[in-house]
Amino acid sequence: MGSGLFGTTSFRIMEQGLQFTSDNKKVIAHNISNVDTPGYKTKYLSFSGVLRDKMNVNSRFKKELHLEQNDLYIDEITKGQPDGNNVDYEVQSALLKSNAIRQEAIINQIESEFRMMRAAMRKS
Length: 124
Known about the structure:
The protein is an alpha+beta fold. It has helices spanning 9-33, 50-57, 89-123; strands spanning 43-47, 61-67, 70-75.
């Protein structure tokens, strides 16, 4: 984002948070859609390297690709079905719900910021 009102740190962080939750929803939905695909390995999205730091301690995941500020990791260790698929539908469903709650919280924060700005503009 550029300078001015939407270039503030607060708005940039919220924008990145919304982008992460949007990308994360796609990754989780992709995992769920492949729950019956033989050999499919569960993927996880990491925001700004938080998971990457953990990967240095735990080599459970293999980095697959870098998406702007987010990294996609493949779970190569978790045992799954005999066909090699390691997607746990219940875990992915819970992650999807958690992601939706996070996204809703960010949207509520953005709306709150706009309400405060409108109130400040009315007073001036």
